[in-house]
Design goal:
By secondary structure, the chain is α/β, with parallel strands linked by helices. The protein is built from 12 helices and 8 strands.
């Protein structure tokens, strides 16, 4: 049975795609088969972290949604780029990108798509690729696609910054997730200044939202320097960001 994890934030710029990519790497590092789907169809980008040029992909999620291919045909094995020295036994990462073509994005804006197809596609992808984990990188905010991703999730990671606008949006999403009976709800606080007392910040947010804080991730200069050109867990496994992220992976696995 595939464990489905959605990473979501109410606002853009929280770092959810970076978190998703790093969690995918850390899971594959443990010998697990991991799928990653970019459902941020209007502003895709997680493919960049895996060194993939989305324009060179034969198929994307958009092609599946328009009936041009089977869902597994749009999945690209990015294991070798994530693990240039070879992946652990059994470990793999399969990325399903969304199109970067302006025409494809415009079509979604104009026509929308059948959200039920996503549900069918997610389950088919899990089965046909024999995935241990499926990670869904969602579109920020709340829309029909987001609600579907949340509803089918075994775990929902809600990413927020220490910012009052993020707090308000997170409260809305948490309420929706509770109504949808998501089994595991975890908050991930990102981009915390190193001057912050992380334990105190986690306790405050946990109390305010009545939900566990899986991690408080620091604002990391190495990530800024990378500029989304790689996965920090692979390049600097002992960085404070990666060390702080590992407990999230442990919670997802348990």
């Amino acid at each position: 049975m595939t464990h489905i994890v959605s990473t979501h934030s109410y606002r853009g710029g929280t770092g959810k795609s970076t978190i998703t990519a790093n969690i995918a790497y850390l899971l594959a590092l443990q010998g697990l088969r991991v799928g990653v789907v970019d459902t941020d169809i209007l502003s895709p980008g997680i493919h960049v972290l895996f060194g993939l040029d989305a324009d060179s992909a034969r198929f994307t999620l958009n092609d599946y949604l328009w009936g041009r291919c089977a869902i597994e045909e749009a999945a690209i094995d990015v294991t070798d780029s994530a693990f240039p020295d070879g992946a652990p036994d059994g470990g793999s990462i399969h990325l399903l990108p969304s199109s970067m073509q302006a025409g494809e994005i415009a079509r979604v804006l104009k026509e929308g798509f059948e959200v039920d197809l996503l549900n069918e596609g997610f389950h088919a992808l899990c089965e046909r690729l024999a995935l241990d984990y499926l990670l869904i990188d969602t579109h920020p905010g709340v829309n029909e696609e987001t609600l579907l991703s949340i509803a089918i999730s075994d775990t929902l990671l809600l990413v927020l910054r220490p910012d009052h606008q993020d707090y308000q949006g997170t409260a809305v999403t948490l309420e929706l997730a509770r109504r949808l009976d998501v089994p595991q709800l975890l908050l991930v606080v990102n981009k915390a200044l190193k001057a912050f007392d992380t334990r105190q910040l986690a306790d405050q947010i946990c109390t305010a939202f009545r939900s566990p804080v899986a991690a408080v991730l620091p604002l990391n200069e190495d990530l800024v320097r990378l500029g989304s050109s790689g996965i920090l867990s692979a390049l600097a496994p002992e960085s404070d960001y990666v060390v702080a992220l590992r407990p999230v992976v442990d919670l997802v696995r348990n």
